[in-house]
Amino acid sequence: MPKYARMKTQVPGPRSREILELMQRYVPRAMTPHVPAVIARASGAIVEDVDGNQFIDFSGGIGVVNVGHAPPEVVDAVTEQTRRFLHTDFTVVPYEPYVRLAERLARQAPGGPWKVAFFNSGAEAVENAVKLARYATGRAGVIALEGAFHGRTYMAMTLTSKVKPYKERFGPFVPEVYRVPAPYCYRCPLGLRYPDCGLACVESMKRALVTTVAPEAVAAVIVEPVQGEGGFVVPPPEYLPAVRELTARHDILLIVDEIQTGFGRTGRFFAVEHFGVRPDVLTVGKSLAAGLPLSGVIARAELYDRLGESVVGGTFVGNPVACAAGLAVLDIFERQQLVERASRLGELIRQRMMAMQERFAIIGDVRGLGAMMAMELVRDRSTKEPADVETSRILKRCFEQGLIAVKAGIYGNVIRMLVPLVIEEEQLLEGLAILEQAIAQEIRA
Q1: How do residues 157-182 score in pLDDT, each as one tens digit?
Q2: Dist CA 347 CA 276 (whole Å)
Q3: At what angle do helices 338-359 and 320-336 cross, to 10 degrees?
Q4: What are the residues whose beta carbons fall under 8 Å from the beta carbon of 34, sequence distance 6 or more?
Q5: 385, β-bridge pairs
Q6: Given 137, 212, 236, 315, which residue has the most CB atoms within 10 angstroms?
Q7: Between vectors from CA 296 to CA 347 and to CA 277, what angle results, nearest 5°?
Q8: Is the pTM of this model over 0.85?
Q9: 137 contacts 251 by C-beta, under 8 angstroms
């Protein structure tokens, strides 16, 4: 008998249907939600809809609520800040929460010395990281990877790899962006097998600096230490150090996009720490403020010092309420030791997924770091034909049984885990049982 996933009605229930009918009338279809149920409240890893159905949340708002839904410490900090003031525009009248949060992130990031600027969304952080790189180097070119996701504004969308649904019919895109193969070992775009490949993906980047764009024209290489939307693709351990060596040789900046991987998701505060690499720029967002819109660009201080006054900014960037939430998030991480907890949760998820892989031939690959785990579904393990339709049906069965889970991958056939890091182990295991049952139902169908 499920303890946490409690379904009182079919999904959607009558109250959700009423609201969703209004949504169809007044909200663009382009914003169609993944789960056809309207949230009423949430706490920790549990979401309740307006019909009283209770779900275990494995999506975490796409990696936003690492500290859980509505943690009391964040709610209290936000409430207190709203009593003080809501807005000034930091570049008009500065405020302490912004400065204190910048200080703590600068101390947290590997390497340095760092300075930090805040923005609203992950895409804004990426845009400003590129602006900084171009300004600091005097170069225009940016190299991105196949399978990358960096956002939906124009520079960020240009850097993003997947065409549908993100880029189709939105061109032309921003110039001077160059694409190279990603270290996607399960589906090596070069048809090779790691470790016998000799890191051919790095060799492809080297070749691009000869055949596609001159290194002295490249401002930055931007990478996710683990590709998120691309399918939780974990590079070989030698990959990022080799890219770092290549970029350093040509005075190219290395931008590491930690918007989804950061804040403990992989068992390190920043995922790049797994690889022993010191980037020039880090972008952060998502779980930075537990659901409030806040992102940041952490960059080497001397890069920021090259900028003139008022070169970056924006009316709402680094909002004081969101910064107060960010400080509370860092307190929760320290007090609850969530980075270490992510490693423990990840091991539980990995063990259960590996057991599912032994049971179900549809699971072609299990991969991830820490609690950032995923499994890729295929119709045939030898051909690796993506099981995209089956993946969607499995996820539909999941939320009908009280589990919210989401997919990823260039073929839409990867089930990814973005559980809140505060999830109780009993809740995690119940959710994994629902997922396993949904896969079994798909196999029998």
Answers
A1: 999 999 999 999 999 999 999 999 99
A2: 22
A3: 70
A4: 59, 395, 404, 406
A5: 380
A6: 137
A7: 55
A8: yes
A9: yes
